[in-house]
Amino acid sequence: MDKNTLNRNISCPGPLDISDEDVLKAMRDVQGYLDITPADAKELYRFAYRHAIERLTHSVRARDVMTKTVISVKIDTSLEEVAELMAHHGISGVPVIEGEGMVAGIISEKDFLHNMDNEGASSFMGILAHCLKRGGCIALSILKWKAEDIMTSPAVTVEEDTPVSEIAGIFTKKNINRVPVVDRKGKLIGIVSRADIVQSSSQIIEK
């Protein structure tokens, strides 16, 4: 068997229920004649393990990992209230809703940073440096604004049957840390964060 075809970097962190289909897919990954040795069997197991993880991750849906009690704000909520709410709950973003719970947008820390009169300060330390150098609070420029004035809209959303693997791809592609979960009418029913994805992946490995 051509050892160069095997990926030696595939990790095998723990036991997992590997199906026959996972093994067959792993065997197809290994090119050439299979004259199984202990080392080859170990490599084959690693390939099968990877396929099992991919299969199980795809079977987990947004509904399985989402937070159902969502901290959200309305479009006319003052930014002072939004900031206080995010600080109190220790979160870096909130969905913005209108009407009967429809998602109108989402606000993150980045939205605050991008809209303040910060002259290029795009981080907490940048803002701190600006305040220490010039004095005053640069957030005063948006003091009277509402949530709808800085929210990112339309928000990227998913439905409750969206696979976790697809959501992880959305996080990477869109460079976002959370995504609201909506029903077929667009009503907010939950939220999935990067932390939820990491936790669900860890639970899959531990099972």
Q: Could you describe the largest sheet, including whether it forms a barrel?
A: 3 strands, mixed
Low-confidence stretches: 1-15
Which class of secondary structure composition applies to the elements?
Answer: alpha/beta
Biggest sheet strand line-up: 1-2-3
Count of beta strands: 6
The Rg value, from CA coordinates, equals: 23 Å
* Oligomer class: single chain
CATH topology of the largest domain: CBS-domain
Helical proportion? 40-55%
Number of helices: 9
For the record, the CATH architecture of the largest domain stands as Roll
CATH superfamily of the largest domain: CBS-domain
Which H/E pattern describes the elements?
HHHEHEEHHHEHEEH
What top-tier CATH class of the largest domain fits best?
Alpha Beta
Shape: elongated
Averaged pLDDT, please? 79
- Estimate nothing, just give the exact number of structural domains: 2
Q: Alpha-carbon distance between the termini? A: 32 Å
Strand content: 5-15%
Which structural traits does this protein have?
3-stranded mixed sheet; 6 strands; 2 domains; disordered N terminus; 207 residues; CBS-domain; 45% helix; alpha/beta; 9 helices; single chain
List the helices and strands and how they pair.
Layout: H1 20-29, H2 38-59, H3 62-65, E1 73-74, H4 79-89, E2 93-98, E3 102-108, H5 109-115, H6 124-134, H7 147-150, E4 158-159, H8 164-174, E5 178-182, E6 188-193, H9 194-206
Parallel strand pairs: 1-2, 4-5
Antiparallel strand pairs: 2-3, 5-6
